[in-house]
Amino acid sequence: MTLIDAASTSRQISTLTLGLLAAPGIAADLAQQLADDLPAALADRIGTELAWEIPVVVDRLAAEPGIGTAVIDAARERMLREGWDLAVVLTDLPLRIGRRPVVADASATHGVALISLPALGAVQLRRRARDAVVRLVDGLVGESLELGGRDGAARRQRVGRRLADLAHTEKRVEPDDVGVDVRLVAAVVRGNARLIAGMLRANRPWQLAARLSRALVAAGATLVFALVTSDIWKLADALPAVNLSALTVVSLAAIVGFLILSHGLWSRPTDGIGREQAILFNLVTVLTLLIGVASLYVALFVLAMACAGLALDPSVVTQALGHHAGLGSYVRISWMASSLATVAGALGSGLESDATVREAAYGYRPERETEQERDSLA
Q1: Is residue 159 a contact partner of residue 136, using CB atoms and an 8 Å limit?
Q2: Are 323 and 233 a contacting pair, CB within 8 Å?
Q3: What are the pLDDT digits (tens) for 330-341?
Q4: Whole-prediction pTM
Q5: Can you state the angle between helices 26-46 and 125-144, rounded to 10 degrees?
Q6: How far is residue 34's CA from residue 149's CA, in Å, rounded to a whole number?
Q7: How many CB atoms neighbour CB 334 within 10 A?
């Protein structure tokens, strides 16, 4: 055996276990992806002297409303039970201090970090989450290997320096919570815009209509009826574009308002922090429904144009309208048919259960779990 071989054999590579504790839903899906990315990313960042195991556990405690020690202490207990060395909590709930979104909390004392995924925004979430986890773990590992780390103030300064590059736009603040060494918050305007975008991504509004089967059936039936009714052709042809536009706005507002009121999607504001949180959720609810319903409207319009082109004979439409039926006529007919179908979809959504609509509108809201969901996650 050569000297180099002997040296490499004698070198011991330590294995550290980093547990990812994720909320059900999009956070759990992301955690599974990160488990594949993190070993190589951590080796590049921290060094090849450490090998990494990345178990993933889906637990509702990662989605419990709270901040700082409440979630970190619970994660610490789970980490000790599982025998992990470090833990990172991935929550899809928005965390805020005052008007600033909280991006991450880190506790070197507990070996736990907490990341709020909505605060990372809506685009490149996997990359941003991976970078955030790597930098947080780098800070926690470096502090755990630091000698003389019992001084709380000094520990906070060291961890803060190690985590200073978590994000260029985040600001490090001194947390009031005992046991939280570093808290990273985003800028008020840009951070809240990114937070809202992240919450919308978690809700996946473009899938809203697909999850409401009764609303789809009602909208589809009305669309077919409108396309084969000559009176609707004449009315659509007679109305100016401004009236058709107003009908579009009314139809979108009708289904959004109907969904909110009939299925209890509006959070009642209270005082203080609860009031700001309720306003935030209500804003995201309205935006989620608007995007979802607008996606449905566009899909109905495209379907109406396709069906009109295939099923409506130009000579028949021309005879009914009293003038040549060109592309503009077909656009107007499809436009009005889509608006009527959207209103019918609103009525059809009234037949959906509250649980179905809430599941369609929200990515994950623990206070709105059904008993069946609780049993399946237990």
Answers
A1: no
A2: no
A3: 999 999 999 999
A4: 0.73
A5: 50
A6: 30
A7: 25
- Give the pLDDT score at 100: 82
On whether the CB atoms of residues 21 and 146 are closer than 8 A, the answer is no
Q: What DSSP state is assigned to residue 262?
A: H
The yes/no answer on whether domain 3-187 falls in CATH 3.90.930 is: no
Give the least confident one: 62-71, 138-147, 312-321. Answer: 138-147
Spatial neighbors of 49 by CB under 8 A, at least 6 apart, are: 11, 13, 14
Structure tokens at 292: 């979802």
Would you state the pLDDT for residue 179?
60
Distance (Å, rounded) from C-alpha 195 to C-alpha 131?
18
The alpha helices in 209-352, defined as continuous H runs, are 213-227, 230-238, 241-262, 273-311, 314-321, 327-349
Amino acid identity of residue 137, one-letter, is: V
Phi, psi of 188 (to 5 degrees): -65, -55
Q: Where do the CATH 3.40.390 domains begin and end in the chain?
A: 3-187
Q: What is the pLDDT of residue 93?
A: 81
Q: How many helices (H) and strands (E) does the chain have?
A: 14, 9
378: which residues sit within 8 A by CB, 6+ positions away? none
